[in-house]
Amino acid sequence: MPEKREVPAGRLPAVSDEVREALDHGRPVVALESTIIAHGLPRPRNLAVAEELEQLVRAGGAVPATIAVLDGRPRIGLDKEQLARVAGEDGIRKLGHRDLAPAVAAGASGATTVSATAFLAARAGIRVFATGGLGGVHREWTHTQDESADLRLLARERIAVVCAGVKSVLDVPATLQRLETLGIGVLGFRTTQFPGFYLRSSGEPVDWTAGSAEEVAAVLRAQDVLGGPPSALVVANPVPEAEQLDPALHDRVLAGALEACAREGVSGQAVTPFLLDHLVRHTGGASLEANVAAVRGNVRLAAEVAVAYASAS
Ligand code: PSU
Ligand code: MN
Description:
The chain has 313 residues and is an alpha/beta fold. It is built from 13 helices and 13 strands. It has helices spanning 17-24, 35-40, 45-59, 80-88, 100-106, 114-124, 141-144, 149-154, 172-182, 213-226, 247-263, 271-282, 286-312, and strands spanning 14-15, 29-32, 63-70, 73-76, 93-95, 110-112, 128-130, 160-163, 185-189, 193-196, 199-205, 208-210, 233-236.
């Protein structure tokens, strides 16, 4: 028999006192992912954005719960120092849901993607989560079979993910089809078009639209009441018109980014950070501003939804 190795109790998920207190009293909490901080935005801007996002949640009347793994311990709610580690520590890994167990066992530190964040948040009892853009089906899927683990996880967790659609570097129609197959609800927020992350619209329609945070909260409560196997709700919130990337610039630079990715043989987990970084460098930072604007809008809306959900529950 191989020797049984125990996972130390100090590696069990830790919920911060502030988040625990809010959850215990049914007060609104918004989960925030950390991969966008560690791997999606350049330093040192990333730490400023991470702090600003937490501030926006508070201003909206909810408690922020940024999620990451530090020294093998999943953490739901980070203090200032922990947030700074996620933003600035060299070698911080990118952890999808499947990476959580190896990271815990190895005592590793990493930022959590949508899949890992949704998993940890839902288990802690958090109902609303904000991010920038979901992962999805990559354009080269027929060769690479690269589909983000985000989708599979969202098919299994009852959590609302407020996002600006899926990243436009992806195959958007294929991703929408997968969301349908996986039974993941999609609700446009004040739009009948699925947003295009940096752009207000991807050109694809959505079947359902909500006009207010209260309407979104009503859908969450309907999910609760209907019961059955859990699945997520994607709340697709377009970037404000004035802050979207110029669509012509977007299309031009994206084509170059996809070519560079193929030429340099980038694969696996590295693909998304590579494409996002290429876009930042080749739009003179404009894609970064659109990305940050989208995330800000999502975080604000997520706080409103969490407040509406908590007050009516
Ligand atoms: N949205 C952003 N920036 C990001 C991401 C989303 O605005 O960096 C991250 C999320 O953490 C998402 C991940 O879960 O990219 C998807 O990566 P992959 O395609 O390797 O699953
Ligand atoms: Mn991938």
